[in-house]
């Protein structure tokens, strides 16, 4: 099911889909709504998953658990009701629910993590998480700020076959316009509709951004081949980068889905956990990104790559040619 239709499917009134300007705001609103709906305080998140810069959730994005402040000015007290666990660690997940399941309002996750490495859930992991949330009365929240409408009209949840209680989307929804949204189960969203959980903002539901979102989703829906083309381009780009790395004496590995992937320099092994991501040569990658910029191609220095519908074979050629010039200059 398309993600937009999925968000609407349990929303008979406009109050059950809420719009704002930033992904951070939408995440914050979704978690507030989850706490209101459950009457519980605790939120769990996964190490390496990024859910915005606001104090009550900014933690374990650049380090392993436990939860701790990540920026100057962030008070430890802001994280008093947040716990972090390692992604793909089934035993840690079970232990969390056994110890604190009765306190959990929600577990939030990037269904297909993209920030701390594009690291997919292990087989059965999301299904296990879904079952644990159901058994303990906690809500499952998927942060699809990156993956929503970028990897498919149904988002990562459609690819993975696990449906959350609440979904947060942004970025690709507006095709460059500032917009975010969250929505989900009607009984949960009633907390907002009845104003038991406040969601306020001057530009919430702003007409220009809403029109941009509608036009973007409509255009994607009328071009069913766009996601296949993105996947093929990304596969060619990833394969080319890995080959060029090997040719120039650098072990470069990639992982991803559709038009989003991550690249790392590693001397051995792949990247299947956030620990693996932290153990890669992040400094070498940052130097590579700087050299690529000198060659005319801007990369995100942390390692994530995006392809869009505006990209084609010519742009992939340019990127690979730039890498062929940059890699010999990289050093160790």
What is Rg?
20 Å
Structural class: alpha/beta
Q: Number of DSSP helices?
A: 11
Taken together, the total number of domains comes to 2
What is the spatial order of strands in the main beta sheet?
A: 1-7-6-5-4-2-3
Global morphology: globular
CATH topology of the largest domain: Aspartate Aminotransferase, domain 2
CATH level 4 superfamily of the largest domain? Type I PLP-dependent aspartate aminotransferase-like (Major domain)
Largest β sheet strand count, sense and barrel closure:
7 strands, mixed
Nutshell version of this structure?
It contains eleven helices and ten strands. By secondary structure, the protein is an alpha/beta fold.
Walkthrough of the structure:
This protein has about 325 residues and is α/β, with parallel strands linked by helices. It has two domains: about 5-220, Aspartate Aminotransferase, domain 2 (3-Layer(aba) Sandwich), CATH 3.40.640; about 225-330, Alpha-Beta Complex (Aspartate Aminotransferase, domain 1), CATH 3.90.1150. Helix content is about 40%, strand content about 15%. The protein has eleven helices and ten strands. The strands form two sheets. The protein has a seven-stranded mixed β-sheet with strand order 1-7-6-5-4-2-3, with helices on both faces. Strand 4 (about 105-110), helix 4 (about 125-135) and strand 5 form a beta-alpha-beta unit. It is globular and about 60 Å long. Residues about 10-15 have low confidence and may be disordered.
